């Protein structure tokens, strides 16, 4: 309930012209000039995307890695870059924001650039951008009817007054984004990705770039987003996590991730990816079995 009260207050503040300027956006200390420049740009983008509190969350996440001795400048830059990209995920609200920005609407209300595009979402994806209290009942009805995966085309049109007005309403809905199902899901995903990076640095530091850049598998919207997320999850759950847990022995984890990613095509059943992962695991088992046999023989009577 407190979250909805905060959202209501935020909406009223928007109508009254107030801003969340009281939120401090201090960068972590000790950043190199290259990292600081990138982080500042990301903060500006996140404030535009959502608000200062959201940008503060980004800075807190960067701070976890900024002072680590096992993270160099290039690695920190890539973490900062990919995290900013993922935290500005493309929901219908974001695409409305981008359309308005691209149109460059002047003081007279006329767009400087013509923007008129149609984007294909899944209906559950659009509903998930709504506050949970609104989205859940709708998703239950869609699920009962078997319509939750139906495609839905949305037009982002900034060529006339009516289209611009609609885009502004859609972009204004960002005030409610942080109460949505999608926002909660994205927050969990980013935390899991960061956790995998942390675990990789501790367990298999030579593979950290492969784990880090796996974030590029997920992006966009509609089926492309869903397939990317499903493929990333399968690779992490069946290759990366077992290696970190010590239940799967892979001499070259980075190469295994690259091989799996090459097979991660848009496929609802993930046939090629599952076959490739099974082959990787089979090779690892075949290599591990003789070693186990030799160790047993060496410890015999």
Give structural notes:
With 301 residues, the chain is mainly alpha-helical. The protein has 3 domains: 1-88, no CATH class; 92-179, no CATH class; 182-291, no CATH class. 65% of the residues lie in helices and 5% in strands. The chain has helices at 2-15, 33-49, 52-66, 73-87, 92-103, 123-127, 132-145, 161-172, 181-203, 208-213, 222-245, 253-262, 271-298, and strands at residues 116-122, 151-157. Strands 1-2 form a two-stranded antiparallel sheet. Helix 2 (33-49) runs parallel beside helix 4, helix 11 (222-245) packs antiparallel against helix 12 (253-262) and helix 12 runs antiparallel to helix 13. The model is unreliable at 291-301 (pLDDT under 50).
List the helices and strands and how they pair.
Layout: H1 2-15, H2 33-49, H3 52-66, H4 73-87, H5 92-103, E1 116-122, H6 123-127, H7 132-145, E2 151-157, H8 161-172, H9 181-203, H10 208-213, H11 222-245, H12 253-262, H13 271-298
